[in-house]
Amino acid sequence: MKRLPPLNALRAFHAAAQEGNFTKAGAALHVTQGAISRQVKLLEDVMGRPLFFRVHQGIRLTETGKLLAEGLQTAFGGLEQLMDRINSDQRRLQIAINLPPTFATRWLAPRLSKFCNQYPFVDFQITTNWVQSLRECEAHDALVVFDQAPWPKTDSELLMLEKHVMVCHSGMWSNDLPPTLGSQTLLHILNGKERMPVWERWIEQHHLGHINPQPGVAFSTLDQVINAAVSSAGVAIVDLSMVRPELASGVLRRFNDLDMDGPYGYWFVDVAKDNEHKAVVRLFRDWLQQEVADSLTDKAAASI
After folding, report:
1. Entry pTM
2. Using one digit for the tens of pLDDT, what is the confidence trace for 182-192?
3. What's the CA gap between 135 and 188, in Å, rounded?
4. Integer Cα distance of 52 and 54 in angstroms
5. Buried b / exposed e across 260-277, counting CB within 10 Å, b at 16+?
6. Apex 296 CA angle, 200 and 145, nearest 5
7. Using an 8 Å Cβ cutoff, are 187 and 168 in contact?
8. DSSP state letters, 69-129
9. Torsion over CA: 206, 258, 239, 265 (sign)
């Protein structure tokens, strides 16, 4: 295939040919007159022929310019018709995604409308079942799993690692001081039937040996732990990404600036069975990765 001229140069020329004026063409494409002029000059250099000549009132097409303008009118018109056909296509595709409950409600749900607006042909079936192996994935096209490592023999990619912080309800503070930790109820999270040793790791990492991590209340999801903390039920160690709204509003308050990474993270696992579903799953995965990157950029900007 022969190398085609740059698309931006063709669009600039097409607008200038229609408007008969570089300034009006710039306004139509939301760029400056100078940008149109440079793109037209680039196109003329590529083609090795002049496309316009100047007259007292503005510009006129050369014979080559007329030929190119007629061809582009047909080409761009065909593209517009094609896009109209694609946009009017009523075929929809549903993908089944299984997610950790807290990730689904606190992280994905507030963002999901952006994906749906951008890709309106995709429908979701979202579940939050306890899935621990590939044998349990027959009904799903993809999963986000909460684990310490990627699933073996799968197409798995890390979305983000946990970063734990210690929080409680702001009303539990007094004179700008947090409550005494040893006298508070510790809120724990279960991973299946076992309690996750988050408090033990926190106490060890931050040298709080005087605190007994055993007493407290354990919940089946991180979302329940966060809601308990919002209700002043006790002190929790939670993933920072899941409590940003509560911290921003002041409902929850961090005890201090200490944090603790992982070891768990959220992994995206592609288990789609056919090429069409796999293509949409990858579209969703790429969007998730960009949302994670944007959230990290926003966090870094907010800390400056």
Report:
1. 0.70
2. 889 999 999 87
3. 29
4. 7
5. beeebbbbbbbbbeeeeb
6. 55
7. no
8. HHHHHHHHHHHHHHHHHHHT----EEEEEE--HHIIIIIITTTHHHHHHH-TTEEEEEE--
9. negative
